[in-house]
Amino acid sequence: MKRIMSGMRPTGRLHLGHYFGALTNWLEFQEKYESYFSIVDWHALTTKYQTSQEIKNNIWEIALDWLSVGIDPDKSTLYVQSAIPEIAQLHLLLSMITPQNWVEREPTLKDLVKMLAADEQEAKEKATYGLLGYPVLMTSDILAFRGELVPVGKDQESHLEFARDVARRFNSLYGVSYFPEPQPKFTTTPLLKGLDGQKMGKSASNDIKIADSEEETVKRIRQAITDRTRIAKTDPGHTDLCEVPWPLYLVFAQHIKEQVKLECESAQIGCVDCKARLAGIINEFFRPIRERRKELAKNPDRVRKLLEHGNIKAKMVAQQTLAAVQEIMGLVVWS
Ligand code: SF4
Question: What is the arithmetic mean of pLDDT over 6-13?
């Protein structure tokens, strides 16, 4: 089986975008590939170092989300990045062979700096040495497990090029073919906007979380932007202009899409009722997941043990990689 590697930053509870953009793919991967899924807490630190106290709790929240949706620790290796110091050691060694200008031109890095700071002066103060090394850390996450596949969207392939370039450079510098050049495993992500019609994001508070209660879901869907041209209930709606509910219907309720379209475009239903129905469908979909999550949350020791078990499995692989890299580089491998 090919080895696939992916991770998520522990920056808060996961939302519908994560569920349909990543987790549903992971459920499929764990049946087909040797899967390594990491909670990448050091990555969260690269931008959240001023609020680092939140990271610990977010690790549990993400673990609960993963387990409740069906990411199975018997099929996948689930681990926390900071439990595997070998990744940090590999990061250091790969930093030594990575040209500085490769890091500086990395587009992801530019996006992260933009997220941190409003202008160039602020960026100088807030962007850290750790953030600059982010692409090498991401590469180490993949190469520590000699990952062959990394799930990416069609527009994100460039993120992986960096890791490929570093793997290639290592192999060429030391005359080996030790690291596989990780290949993209393309995934399709439905375009789900946030409730305000903007990009869905945890920090924008415009999302619906997997862990939200049914009441919260109803309340939040009520705020969703619909067809901005529809003023009165008697005006016919336009599903193609309906910004949030219609795309959600397409994801959650394909089987009634013709009915919704007809009712909307002939003004048989108002947006308030249409959104109430949608909230009911979403709640029904997530009910078993939310119930599992509640049960797991009552048993933090069990969740901790599952993560510790994954950490041990991941550590064994990363240790082997690190020892091999040290050998290849001609360094002393201490026992
Ligand atoms: Fe959107 Fe439903 Fe309103 Fe039509 S009736 S615009 S699909 S919310």
Answer: 95
